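Quarterly update, task 2.4: 1-deoxynojirimycin-bound model.
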Amino acid sequence: MTNAHADWWKQAVVYQVYPRSFYDANGDGLGDIAGVTAKIDYLAALGVDAIWLSPFYPSPLIDGGYDVADYRDVDPRLGTLEDFDKMAAAAHAAGMKVIVDIVPNHTSTEHEWFRAALAAGPGSPERDRYIFRPGRGEHGELPPNGWKSTFGGPAWEPVGDGEWYLHLFAVEQADLNWKNPEVHEDFKTTLRFWSDRGADGFRIDVAHALAKDIDSRPLEDWPDDPGQSCLAQSGSDDENPLWDRPEVHDIYREWRQVFNEYEPARFAVGEAWVAPEHQWMYASTDELGQVFNFEFAKKNWFAADFRLAIEEGLDAAERSKSTTTWVLSNHDVPRHATRFALPQVPSSTHHQIATDWLLRDGTTYYEDREAGTRRSRAALLMELGLPGSVYLYQGEELGLFEVADIPWGALEDPQAQMTAHGDAIKGRDGCRVPLPWTSLDATGDFGFSGPADHAAPHLPQPAWFAQFAVDVEEGDEASMLSFYRAALALRRALIVPTGDTSLAWDEANAGDVVAYQRPLADGRTLVSMTNFGATPVALPAGEVLIASAELVDGKLPQDASAWIACA
Ligand code: NOJ
């Protein structure tokens, strides 16, 4: 194996499949593994290097599968292990790698370990795999302390015998005790299980939460909110009992030994919503190798914000001696076509506008879809020209917007379930609506299910999905899908083969413009320019490889990007 092969992930374009909502091959209204296999040709034609599948394991699906009941099997509603093997073989045959999701912070309360913990009672080795503590009050009727779960409500749940267990997420997601050696061994078994079955890499869920220090002081002495919301970002110091603790890195150094048992070594990317200056540790080569940089997913449409995000990402990459990642959307944030279509406020609390807009079913602010589309196209070129990996989220290649008006009764996200109607947040279902494959809605699901006779999609699709269906966009050169394919093909042919991850800022138009230079495989230099400002900007002399919008008198208009190959 060559080094180049072992390093396939360093500048890969990874496509995130949210399996329940990708394609439903068996007609039960839930996407499945066979549905991914059926669409491998579509993904290969798109031009991605790898697919990452969000959890498809047996699960009560309280949190979209991030509540795992068995880490080494496939949920019967989504298929079988043989279906996984076929899918992995098809992906590999088409030249794509396969990344699976590991959820090590918590198990479903349906996991056999949790059931055993309940049955075995206080003080048992079974309970020690989780974080059980006695309640306060005469009969343990009060929670051990005031910590809140990320999804709302208390982070402790009583089990009826005076003990309570910790759940940083939903009640049905019990936090594991990473001080217990059995937990370590079991996850290493899981990593080997999927590696042996053809997984090329792993995405690690809430990678910054595993190590907890909750006993170094009496539980009630911890503040109720030790900055624990993963979206709020932890204080990133070792005073925080729950998030981003220094000991978490020991776990990943241990996992690195497992990854390196394979040839090429298995790859991992951590989901760690930590301060940018703390990201690099997770990404270092003796740990996971890569970590998500979510700064793009938080920024509003301002040149200075994106420039800062790029600088921070490159800085983290340099410190970790790895590459960084660029993410505009995933299954946890409102779709970026909508974020860029809503009012843009510099340095706003990220997602607040979209969250408010969702709460009122999309009625509080005007969603300027033309602006959203323009900016999404511009953002794609800005992103794809950068050194590092790019993570795409299913449906963004179609230019899908967030679905704002899912009826409250149809919502599945526990974030929404935790809140009373109207007073909190609507959650993440608006970006998880089943994809439209055909514009014809003859059987009521835009081709989401293969069989003609099928159940309704698990989340309702809006009528406007018809314009964004794959069959419509495939036939339209001006569509988002055609634009993604063209840009991905250029990146693959001209940018990545150099193996060079350097970037030089082009300061000529700083201000409203984000412009940078990269070496191209044919010896020329790429200039990527994005114009955020109202005044059209002159392009440097060279060949325009691709532009996200038509040039105006040869100049780059507002909300547009271009790639120019200069001699
Ligand atoms: C992060 C996942 O991306 C999200 O979807 C999930 O709800 C939490 N982790 C808890 O597992």
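Highlight for this quarter: The CA atoms of residues 11 and 428 lie 28 Å apart.
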